[in-house]
Amino acid sequence: MKIKIIDKNERKITFLLEETNPQFANALRRISRVEIPNLAVQTVDFSKNDSALYDEVISHRLALIPLVFNQKDFEPKETCKCEGKGCSLCEVVFAINKKGPGMVYSKDMKSSNPDVKPLYDNIPIVELGEDQSIKLEAMASLGIGRSHAKFNTAVSFYRFYPSVEMNGEIKNANECIRVCPKHALDIKGNKATITDACDLCQECVKTANPKKIKITGDNTRFIFTIESVSGLSAENILLSATKIFKEKAQEFEKEMKKLK
Ligand SMILES: [Zn+2]
Predict the structure, then answer these.
(1) Pairing with 144, which of 70, 106, 153, 209 sits 20 to 30 Å away (CA)?
(2) Ligand 1 centre distance from Cα of residue 231 (Å)
(3) Do 91 and 171 fall within a single domain?
(4) How many domains does the chain have?
(5) What confidence score (pLDDT) does residue 210 get?
(6) Is 64 found in the same domain as 47?
(7) Is residue 194 within 8 Å of 162, Cβ to Cβ?
(8) How far is the CA of 236 from the centre of ligand 1 (A)?
(9) How far is ligand 1, taken at its centre, from the CA of residue 97, in Å?
């Protein structure tokens, strides 16, 4: 298996994955989305809410705010030594206490842990009118996207690497090049080349006259993208997914050995 980074920043990573198969790529995709423990608001205690939004709506909005945290510092509540009661190892409390008029933003969430905060400061939560105020405490803990979408860590997807074959000359080669929405195709005489921007849309194949062009996806090479929707960096998500994948395989191996 080979990996080559195509593009990378804090929030998004795109890489070429080679010498593997769709089953492996798909497992990695699913794990990177919904199996990595992530922090999100689970319960909210309201002392006061004069705003136009119901408590439930505000709770829902708070739960969707991505939180920056250090993975090593947190335990899932179920396995924490506090036995699920809630402690600083498994829980973070955000307090909001604000008087209107004005918008309550994510930056108004005062964290009980200085290392945990909303990813962005300017996410609007609720607008307060004249003489309205809000006071609440929101408890965040770890969970995974498989149990609730608010814990999803990333949007991950892959494309099959394109390959092109030509069998003889095409009369309207220039037209085929022009219709490609990704500008990925080039044809010179009997030879076609394609870049990895191709998403196998087949527009060139439909246009070719006569039909002497074939575009297929290589099912051993994938252009893989992971875009973070959480407080974790894209690279961190990829590394965590790999670690979880390995743990699952080891667990499977352990169970298999018991069957002997
Ligand atoms: Zn605990």
Answers:
(1) 106
(2) 21
(3) no
(4) 2
(5) 86
(6) yes
(7) yes
(8) 24
(9) 25
pLDDT at 196: 87
In the predicted model, what is the mean pLDDT of residues 156-178?
A: 92
CB 66 within 8 A of CB 230: yes
For ligand 1, the distance from its centroid to the CA atom of residue 38, given in whole angstroms, is 15
* 47 and 62 co-located in one domain: yes
Q: Report the CATH number at residue 183.
A: 3.30.1360.10
Question: 109-136: per-residue pLDDT in tens?
Answer: 999 999 999 999 999 999 999 999 999 9
* 26 & 44 share domain: no
Distance 130 CA to ligand 1 centre (A): 40
Residue 51 has pLDDT above 90, yes or no: yes
Are 144 and 220 contained in the same domain?
Answer: no
Q: Which two tokens stand for residue 117?
A: 């905060």
* pTM, rounded to two decimals: 0.87
Percent of the chain with pLDDT over 70: 100
Domain-located, residue 257? no
Dist. CA 81 → ligand 1 center (Å): 6
Which band of pLDDT confidence, cut at 50, 70 and 90, is reported for residue 190?
confident
CA of 92 from ligand 1 middle (Å) equals 10
Helix H or strand E segment including 256: helix 234-258
Work out the angle between the directed axes of helices 22-34 and 234-258 (0-180°, nearest 10). 110
**Ligand 1 center–CA 216 separation, angstroms:** 52
* Cα 83 to averaged position of ligand 1 atoms, centre (Å): 6
CA of 142 to the centre of ligand 1 (A): 11
CA 205, 206, 208, 212 torsion: positive or negative?
positive
Q: What is the CATH number of the domain that holds 45?
A: 2.170.120.12
- What letter represents residue 63's amino acid? A
Expressed in angstroms and rounded, the spacing between residue 125 Cα and the centre of ligand 1 is 28
Q: 41: CA distance to ligand 1 center in Å?
A: 15
